[in-house]
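Please, structure for the following, as tokens.
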Amino acid sequence: MSKKFSLTSQAVFLFKNLLFSYAITAILLFITAFVLYRFHPGAKTVSLCITCIYVIATFLAGFLAGKKEGVRKFLWGMVSGILYFIILALLSLIFKQDSASMGGNFFSVMILCTASGMLGGMVS
């Protein structure tokens, strides 16, 4: 019975952690949109800013997961990064309506989200 409770509490924590990381993503995207509106940078700069936002959000999610769990921190950070990416990919597919819409950086974003979540867990 205690394992089920523990598993449930871990799932709830991961859900809250993902909500936090998406809130951070939303705030950073809002700030980025304002900066982009004011300064009109190029497409490469916009892409770099969005990728950096993903890395920051998953790093923080991994850091929090590692702090909470205390053991196998890298694993919990990696799980946070993977879950963040899966939700990001699903939302991208839903709103863009085709599998090619994620572009050529699908795998690089997947690796960056996973690695930065894992790094966040390791640093915690």
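Residues 2-123 form one domain. The chain has one domain: 2-123.
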